[in-house]
Amino acid sequence: MAKPQKIWLSPPHMGDNEQKYIQQAFEDNWIAPVGPSIIAFEKDLELYLGNRVHVAALNSGTAALHLGLIMLGIQPGDEVFCQSFTFSASANPILYAGAIPVFIDSEPESWSMCPDCLETALKTKAQKGKLPKAIIVVHLYGMPCKIKDIMYIAGKYGVPVLEDSAEALGSRYGGEYCGTFGDIGILSFNGNKIITTSGGGALITKRKEFKERAVHLATQAKKDKPYYEHDEIGYNYRMSNIAAAIGRGQMEVLDTYIAKRRKNHAAYADFFSATQQISVLEEYSLDCYSNFWLTTITVNPSEDSIVPENIRVKLSSENIESRPLWKPMHLQPVFKDAEYVGGDVAEKLFNTGLCLPSGSGLTDTEKERIFSTLREFLF
Ligand SMILES: *Cc1c(COP(=O)(O)O)cnc(C)c1O
């Protein structure tokens, strides 16, 4: 029997107008990392995020994090704090900059950086007279982290915050958009994110001169001269006009897609409410509004031998993709020598959790296929 069609975790989902904007770029021959769609996409994002911010469109979220660290003045040998429970792209740019990562544990409500662990780590570093030069905090799976507490603690010690909002475009805390709290914020438009430009990212800042500097650094740091003159090292990090054209179309459907992902989440929450064995990550306070980029669950310890890996394998046998939660950075072979502050919150989540198919294009029929597969297995 032919396998049923694959249900992906979070596949690209095009709206109606992306091709129109691409067509325009072809007609005008703006097939380059420069052009009107880049400017228009930046404007769309600035308007969406509340118009108090400036946005620089870049070719990945990772590039945005790297430029963010450079703009915060990170030098080789500096320490940078980073949430341990995240995708490696949050941490790798610390190494690109020659700096030293110190990983911080999560707390169980948001799954993101634990404010108490952060405070402990900052206190210890302050006593040694060596504060970190930046703190990278992440809104994981679209769930807003405890950003106000983190900004407050970071502010007490005068350490800037780089807010990795790659998974949280459209999520809000206390009514304000994720990505706009930190000294610098970043977004990703990779293929699996809530909207995509095929590959892309953005840097968010409240300071106009920061945006100008980000664009300058992202375009090889060329001075305004007829010949190319450089007084610092630049990067080739600017977004392509074609990618930005896709982004303009995606911005038109963003809020509809968030509504669809939130509906997916509500359907999963309803489904799992029938069992004590599974917990679904929920908004933990009235201040939280999650885009529910991915619906994530944890399996509660029980006599039954249900472990997330069994659920993953079962779903996979029906051609349904699911994935374990991020493996914490302090448990990664590549970061085995890095300093870590915290307990076992992130590690426990990694051992018990799973991400479920959450695309904005997920149909009711597909959801029913997922549920009937799980029903067989769980009940
Ligand atoms: C996707 C992602 C990134 C990296 O974005 P890219 O555009 O893929 O470079 C960074 N941090 C987190 C938390 C992500 O999920």
From TrEMBL:
InterPro entries referenced in this protein's UniProt entry, alphabetically: DegT/StrS_aminotransferase, PyrdxlP-dep_Trfase, PyrdxlP-dep_Trfase_major, PyrdxlP-dep_Trfase_small
GO molecular function: transaminase activity
Any matching Pfam family: DegT_DnrJ_EryC1
CDD domains: AHBA_syn
Keywords: Aminotransferase, Pyridoxal phosphate, Transferase
Keyword Transferase: yes
UniProt KW Transferase keyword: yes
Superkingdom to which the source organism belongs: Bacteria
Membership in a protein family: Belongs to the DegT/DnrJ/EryC1 family.
PANTHER family: DTDP-4-AMINO-4,6-DIDEOXYGALACTOSE TRANSAMINASE, TRANSAMINASE
Designated name of the protein: Aminotransferase class I/II-fold pyridoxal phosphate-dependent enzyme
Protein species of origin: Flavobacterium rhizosphaerae
Taxonomy of the source species: Bacteria, Pseudomonadati, Bacteroidota, Flavobacteriia, Flavobacteriales
